[in-house]
Amino acid sequence: MFSSDEITVIILTLKVACLSTLLTIPLAIWLGWILATKNFFGKLIVEGLISIPLVAPPVVTGYLLLVLLGKNGILGHWLFTTFGIQLAFNFIALLIASMVVSLPLAVRNIKSSFELIDPDFAKASGSLGASKISTFFRIYLPMAFPGILSGAVLVFARSLGEFGATISFAGNIFGKTQTIALMVYSNMQIPGKEIQVTRLVVFSVVISLIAIIASEYLNKKKKYLIK
Fold this sequence. Notes:
The protein is mainly α. The chain contains 10 helices and no strands. It has one domain (about 5-225): MetI-like fold, CATH 1.10.3720. The protein is about 80% helix and about 0% strand. The longest helix is centred in the first third of the chain and has 34 residues, at about 5-35.
């Protein structure tokens, strides 16, 4: 059985993962669509910037968020002094960190889904009088849906296990920003907490395994439907 502290952390982690998924996917769909169907100057730079959290150490991503959005950061200082909004070391910071590190996974997955769709479908839809918006919602979005759902699963799983950017930008505050990964890290340093650590690790591994299996299944379904 999980202790009350563990339940608090698990609920907070699931809450962040769900909200991060809901907020990230619409942005990922838009970016994936643009990158898959449009050619423009600086496209490679945009793709590179989006992918930075995939290759940069998570702590570096968190530090960059702190420099940009922290209370004394480039943008964060203006937000705090003008509107009294503080984005670092609170739940919002936790959410932002999760979204930033998981966005590249969703964009890459969704972009590949749009790229697999034959452009002739759009041409046929246009020749029948459908607008670009109608074509997107009636042709592209349904055909790419398995890939979008797969991207959502990856965002959820990545948010569930986020550590580096979170501890740098949101901190490790119990009840406010401490997630499963951060509690495991904290308890690993305390003698006698091995059982608690094991419970949380097993829970994380099971959820992650389910997410990976679901993502692989949806990716295979995506290729089948598009063909």
